Amino acid sequence: MKSLVPSAVVLSLVLFTASGTFAEVPDLAKALAGADWSKMETVTVTMTEYAFSPSAIVLKEGVPTKLVLKNGGKEAHYFVAERFFKTIATRKIQDSDGEVKAPSFTAVEVYPGKTMEWFLVPVQKGVFDLLCTVKGHAEHGMKGRIEVR
Known about the structure:
By secondary structure, the chain is mainly β. 7% of the residues lie in helices and 45% in strands. It has 2 helices and 12 strands, in the order βαβββββαββββββ.
């Protein structure tokens, strides 16, 4: 039986209310319903001590994307881009042990040697900061940028 929460990752879920928290993404359901997943693009990001590779990630507005997060390091790493997370429609995030379907996340932690796949649709152009929030990692240079064109 598959776990409801993938064992290879700790997901920090954010629950949004109808009070307009998703102002950046007016209609998540519409963005997901209109996505043609057969034309999905795949972008892979590898996390190590102390870097994202590539450190500059480019995605296309409105294009369904599988964002593959690989931890090639010996420590756990977080993938955190708070502003970016508010401008995407998430279909699901999964690993080999299961999947989670939620409207949004505040952080994705990937354990050493593990991989997560995040199925999303970027719905707003912009440039967003990316960092690892494990103590000391960003200070050692584990930062990046996500650009949606």
